[in-house]
Amino acid sequence: MIMPLAYRYSKKIGCGASPSNYLFRAYFSLCLNGYSKQREAAPFDTGVRVYKIIMLDINGILGLAALMGGIKHGEQSYNDDSARSYSVMILTAMGVSMVVPEFIPEANWKIYSGFTIGAMVVLYALFLRMQVGPHSYFFSYSYPEKRRRKEPAETGPAPVSLAVSIGTLVFGVVVIGALAEVMSKTLDLGLEGTGAPPVITAILVAAISAAPEILTALRAALANRMQSVVNIAMGASLSTVILTVPVMEAMALYTGQPFQMAMTPVQTVMIFLTLIVSAINLNDGETNAIEGMTHFVLFATFIMLSLLGL
Description:
- The protein has 310 residues and is mostly helical.
- It has one domain (16-27, 42-140, 162-307): A middle domain of Talin 1.
- It is built from 11 helices and 2 strands.
- A two-stranded antiparallel ribbon has the order 1-2.
- α4 packs antiparallel against α5, α6 runs antiparallel to α7 (199-209) and α8 runs antiparallel to α9 (226-255).
- The longest helix has 30 residues, at 162-191.
- The chain starts with a helix and ends with a helix.
- Residues 1-20 and 32-43 have low confidence and may be disordered.
């Protein structure tokens, strides 16, 4: 029941740039951070969890959607201003919060954590202000209207109160988060003794939690609406970093236990390779099957590295 509801919600805000969608996805990433067989170990490897979600978003969702849409429609147009804005924001946020911490002395981690929280909040606040205000046109694209047979005018849906909308969103987030936790434990028990890598659980739960976005992106690509795909994939990646990191850093400061925000060298290379490829592919306002395949190959590489424990 929850998944169809989540899919209809995601389809309704299919632009992928809604602030509520950002909060929805950030909560998923926090849920993903909350379970692991090594959960009791310290410091907690938050950066690795964020890395996995971004690999799913940019290389998995964007790659598969661009590949399928390119095969069906050839070149698909979108607003390249949105792609450039997302790319530079993701690169800055990840660099500040997940690469630089590797070089911060352990004695100064609290000072840098406080700085990271402030930097992410300011960065997101300005981005959100520009996205819904002066630069809102960056994240939209005018497609030619299809000629349709005139139909009788229908009355619009009855307005829904803001309180009901917020309550429904919060309820859905809590329920799906709880189900993700239950599912992760069930998968851990089911895979125990099979020899399967523990990372399989995290990947499966992340894929299922992102199912509404995946379905919406694929439908948009097949309908030749690549702007929605870019907003969904890049917007979800940005929200994962820029909303999850401040919360986790605040928790670290509260508990006095540092979280491991830095990634391994292999993961750092994969992140920068992904961002470089996306910056090149999403720079001309059109995607095609070749560009989609490059991202999908990177996603397959991520899966292989995960299975190898890297």
